[in-house]
Design brief:
By secondary structure, this protein is an alpha+beta fold. It contains 10 helices and 17 strands. Strands 3, 4, 6 and 7 form a 4-stranded antiparallel beta sheet that branches. A 3-stranded antiparallel beta sheet has the order 5-14-13, with no helix packed on it. Helix 7 (129-152) packs antiparallel against helix 8 (159-172) and helix 9 packs antiparallel against helix 10 (268-278). The longest helix is centred in the middle third of the chain and has 24 residues, at 129-152. The radius of gyration is 25 Å and the shape is elongated.
Length: 385
C-alpha cells in the first residue's frame, strides 16, 4: 500500500523510512512529485503505484484544459467603451455521442450545408408538420437553457461562468451548443455586455453592479436549431439603461405584432425603427434576423431597420428569428480584433431580445416563448438580477 507523501523528503513506499533520492518520472509529467529512496524500492512498488497514473493524468489534463487562454490581437487596441477583452476559459468539450451540425468538427467551422443552399432559387423553406415539431422541441430546449442561464446572472459572476452553465445545460438535453465552432466561434453562448451589440465571446470579465448583459443561446438537438436571447439588468442599472432594455423589448414586440400570412418581411423594419425613435434610440443595420430550422441560418433575411429591401412574403410554415439590436447612441458598429465581438462605435450601450416564430394560418406561434407567455409581456422583474 502506498502513502501519498507528495513533496515529502522520505521514500513513499510503506515500511521504508529511508531518505528519498529519486522521483517517479511518470508522475513528474503530471506535475506530481512521488519520491523513492532508490530504484529497487521504486521497482518493487511499481505494480501498485502505476495504478495511480491514470487518474493522475486525467486530473492533469482537466487542469490544463481549464487554464485561461489569453485574448490575442488586442495590444494597443483602441476600445470604443470601457469594456476590455479578458483571458478566457478554453472551448468546452462536447461528448462524442452527441450529434453535431456539419460545422461542429470542421477545422474552419464552415457549414457546407448552409453554403450549398441557393437562397434565390430555393426560396423560403415551408416546413412540414413533422419538421415543425422538431423545430418546436429545439426552441423549447433553448428556452429552458436561457432561463437557467438567466437565473445564474449576478454581480460578481464571470461571463465564462455563464458559458459553463449554458454548455452543461445543453449537454444535459442531449444537444450541441450551436455557436461552438460556427466559423470558429470559440464558446457555447454569446454574452454581450454594455456596449457590445452582439457576438460577445464569454471570457473572464466579472459582471459589475449596473451592467446590462445579453445572453444569446442556440441549441442543436435532433437535427434542428433553437435560437433566442434576452438582455438582463445586473444590480442597480441606471434609468437610461433600463429605458434602453425596455425599448429593445418593445421593438421586438412591435415587429411580432405584424407577423401573419401576407406580411412583407421588409415591413418589420419600419415598425422597429418607429418604436426605437420614440426613445431616441437607433437600430443596428449590420445584423438581421434569419430563417432557422435544420440550418442555423437560412432564408429569409429579416432586417430590423427602416427602408430595407428584404425579399419575401410571410406564409404558413415559415420559421424565422426577429432580433433587433437597439443602441442608445448611433447605429454604427465596429468589430473587435477577435473578428466576432461587435460594439457600438460611440461606446454607448446596446440591448437586444430575440424570438423564433412560426407563421400560422391566422398569425404566429412564439416558439421560444416564456412559460405561460404566448405573447410577449414586459416585466422588468423578470430581467432584474
Amino acid at each position: 500500500m502506498l502513502r501519498s507523501l507528495v513533496g515529502s523528503e522520505m521514500c513513499i513506499r510503506d515500511r521504508c523510512d529511508k531518505p528519498a533520492a529519486m522521483a517517479c518520472p511518470t508522475c513528474k509529467k503530471y506535475d506530481v512529485v512521488t519520491l523513492y529512496c532508490d530504484q529497487d524500492c521504486f521497482k518493487s512498488s511499481w505494480d501498485t503505484h502505476k495504478v495511480a497514473h491514470k487518474p493522475m493524468k486525467a486530473a492533469y489534463l482537466q487542469a490544463l484544459a481549464s487554464q485561461p487562454v489569453p485574448r490575442e490581437g488586442f495590444d494597443g487596441y483602441s476600445y470604443t467603451g470601457s469594456l476590455r477583452a479578458m483571458p478566457m476559459h478554453p472551448s468546452r468539450a462536447v461528448p462524442g455521442e452527441i450529434p453535431r451540425p456539419d460545422y461542429g468538427l470542421d477545422p474552419q467551422g464552415i457549414s457546407e450545408s448552409e453554403r450549398a443552399v441557393d437562397r434565390k432559387r430555393a426560396g423560403i423553406p415551408v416546413y412540414s408538420a413533422e419538421e415543425i415539431e422538431g423545430i418546436r422541441h429545439a426552441a423549447r430546449m433553448g428556452r429552458e437553457i436561457l432561463d437557467i442561464a438567466g437565473k445564474s446572472v449576478r454581480v460578481g459572476q464571470t461571463c465564462d461562468e455563464i458559458d459553463r452553465v449554458v454548455h452543461e445545460a445543453t449537454i444535459e438535453r442531449c444537444g450541441y451548443p450551436s455557436p461552438l465552432n460556427y466559423y470558429n466561434f470559440p464558446k457555447s453562448v454569446c454574452t454581450s455586455v454594455n456596449e457590445v451589440i452582439c457576438h460577445g465571446i464569454p471570457d473572464g470579465y466579472v459582471l459589475q453592479d449596473g451592467d446590462i448583459v445579453n445572453i444569446d443561446v442556440t441549441i442543436y438537438v435532433n437535427g434542428y436549431h433553437g435560437d433566442l436571447n434576452e438582455t438582463f439588468m445586473v444590480g442597480n442599472v441606471d434609468d437610461e439603461g433600463r429605458k434602453l432594455v425596455q425599448c429593445s423589448f418593445e421593438c421586438l414586440q412591435a415587429a411580432l405584432a405584424l407577423v401573419k400570412p401576407g406580411t412583407l418581411y421588409r415591413d418589420l423594419g419600419p415598425a422597429i425603427h418607429s418604436r426605437a425613435r420614440q426613445d431616441g434610440c437607433s437600430v443596428v443595420k449590420t445584423y438581421c434576423g434569419h430563417g432557422i430550422g435544420k440550418l442555423f441560418h437560412t432564408s429569409p433575411n429579416v432586417p430590423h431597420y427602416n427602408k430595407n429591401k428584404a425579399v419575401g412574403k410571410m406564409m404558413p410554415g415559415h420559421v424565422f428569428t426577429v432580433e433587433p439590436m437597439i443602441n442608445a447612441g448611433t447605429w454604427q458598429d465596429r468589430t473587435w480584433p477577435d473578428n466576432w465581438t461587435s460594439v457600438t462605435v460611440d461606446g454607448k450601450r446596446s440591448a437586444q431580445f430575440e424570438h423564433m416564430v412560426l407563421v400560422t394560418e391566422d398569425g404566429y406561434e412564439l416558439l421560444t416563448q416564456r412559460e405561460g407567455e404566448p405573447v410577449m409581456e414586459w416585466s422588468s422583474d423578470k430581467l432584474q438580477r
